[in-house]
Design a protein that fits this description.
The protein is mostly helical and about 500 residues long. The chain contains 13 helices and no strands. The chain folds into 3 domains: about 45 residues; about 250 residues, Ferritin, CATH 1.20.1260; about 170 residues.
């Protein structure tokens, strides 16, 4: 139905008094049908199923214009196939390099995981540091899993050489077989490559016309194919547009009675093979590019996870070794002070031992002396008692008037004082012995505590593979701190 018929129907409805709304609805329906039929007609014109009689013109007998058109069309096909092949090969090479990068990331991740696991084994199970390390380990495991999957995807994307060669060979083969109708040259596997196939196309030589001035189909196709170099280009859109360009170029040249050739119109499998090769290669390209883009998108995050993990482990390990250095320095200082104290105490013990021996001898002598004094005092007291027992006659002197009577009294008192002094000396000697024994006990306890601290530090050093024996403060400063510093550098 033509547009005039639609308008006539519209006026008819209005003249019959029909509702305007119904008339408008009918008008819209008819217009839609018209547009639909137009689109179907247009789509049909873009299909490759063109059936024209080219006056039975054979390729070898074609005039210059037809040869120029055929040559230009075939060059355009070659350029599109080659551009697609080159782009896919570039992606393949990138995928190969990126697969190696994925392996490298996985290796770095595995090293970081081993480092984090080792640090975790040194931490208290429920400590804050242990929780942080577990979080880091989970992130590293995710990164390694991603690297494994990415490597597989990229390996698949890079393993397309044979497939690309097969697809392009189909396209180049279609071109080469078409050229044979013009030149009669035989072709083999070598003609399934871009360079050799192009030589064959260039061998189509019109007698007089300069083809580049007559047609530009190849330029149209080539210009659009070059858009594939734009990495921001949507590949699906490019594929659709490229296939449309190929079909339009074919229809434009082969729907024209002055440019068509039976070699094209009688066997449309050639253009279909070209389009199939381009379509399949592009489909493969889309898949490969998506895998490469996925890697590029996640690579920085994966590398950041590994770098962060290594940094965190380095910071935590440095902090652990710094703490160990501080504890080691404290132990060395404690050992130094203990050595000074032990030296002083040793001198005290020597003096105490001498004093103890002297006291012992003094006690022994005091005992003998006390016995002597006691015996002497007893004899003196007996003599005095005997004298007092004598009868006192008139005219005789009293006891107090005896010669040297004062000396006798003083002797008795002296004997008493000597006995008291001896008792006090013996008591002081006992106290001295008790003090010396107490000092010995304190020293023994301090030795035991220091030994326990030394053993704990030694065990800790052995856990981090810093084996060293500490016996003196000089050895502590000269060995422990240097050994810890060296081990820190090696560990980091």
């Amino acid at each position: 139905m033509h547009l005039t018929d639609i308008l006539a129907h519209f006026l008819f409805y209005c003249s019959e008094g029909k509702r305007l709304k119904r008339a408008m609805v009918m008008l819209v329906i008819q217009l839609c049908l018209l547009l639909l039929s137009f689109r179907v007609s247009f789509a049909s014109s873009t299909k490759s199923s063109v059936k024209f009689t080219c006056a039975g013109t054979k390729a070898k007998e074609a005039d210059d214009l037809r040869k120029c058109v055929a040559k230009d069309l075939l060059l355009g096909w070659l350029l599109v196939i080659n551009k697609t092949s080159v782009r896919l090969d570039e992606v393949r090479k990138n995928a190969t390099v990126m697969a190696e990068n994925a392996k490298k990331l996985r290796k770095e991740g595995s090293a970081a995981l081993a480092n984090a696991t080792e640090v975790l084994s040194e931490l208290s199970k429920n400590s804050e540091e242990a929780l942080k390390v577990r979080k880091i380990i989970n992130d590293i495991n995710d990164t390694i899993a991603w690297a494994n999957e990415t490597e597989r995807n990229l390996s698949e994307a890079s393993n397309v050489t044979q497939e690309v060669e097969r697809l392009t060979a189909d396209g180049y083969g279609a071109v080469s077989r078409t050229v044979w109708h013009f030149t009669g040259d035989r072709y083999g596997d070598g003609y399934l490559k871009y360079g050799r196939a192009r030589e064959m196309v260039e061998a189509i030589k019109p007698k007089q016309l300069e083809c580049h001035k007559e047609v530009n189909v190849s330029k149209t196709l080539s210009d659009y194919a070059e858009k594939l170099n734009d990495f921001k280009m949507n590949l699906t859109e490019w594929k659709t547009g490229m296939l449309d360009k190929i079909q339009i170029a074919y229809n434009t040249t082969q729907n024209n009675m002055t440019t068509c050739l039976a070699v094209f119109t009688n066997d449309q499998s050639r253009v279909e093979q070209v389009m199939s090769a381009v379509r399949s290669a592009l489909d493969r390209l889309v898949v490969s590019v998506k895998k490469v883009d996925a890697f590029l998108l996640q690579r920085e995050k994966a590398q950041e996870n590994i770098t962060t993990a290594n940094g965190s482990m380095k910071t935590m390990t440095t902090s652990m070794f710094d703490s160990l250095k501080q504890n080691g320095a404290a132990l060395c200082d404690m050992l130094r002070r203990h050595e000074v104290l032990r030296e002083k105490v040793q001198k005290m013990k020597e003096k105490s031992a001498n004093a103890s021996r002297n006291v012992g001898e003094s006690i022994k002598k005091a005992g003998i002396l006390r016995e002597s004094v006691t015996a002497t005092g007893a004899r003196v007291q007996t003599a005095v008692d005997n004298i007092k027992a004598l009868p006192q006659f008139a005219g005789f002197f009293s006891l107090n008037e005896l010669p040297n009577s004062g000396n006798v009294t003083l002797a008795v008192e002296g004997m008493k004082k000597a006995g008291d002094a001896l008792e006090h000396a013996v008591q002081r000697s006992g106290n001295a012995n008790f003090s010396i024994s107490k000092v010995d006990v304190d020293l023994a306890n301090e030795d035991k505590e220091l030994e326990e601290i030394n053993n704990n530090l030694k065990k800790r050093l052995e856990e981090i593979d810093v084996g060293i024996d500490i016996t003196t403060s000089d050895g502590c400063n000269g060995k422990l701190l240097n050994k810890i510093g060296t081990s820190t550098k090696e560990f980091l």
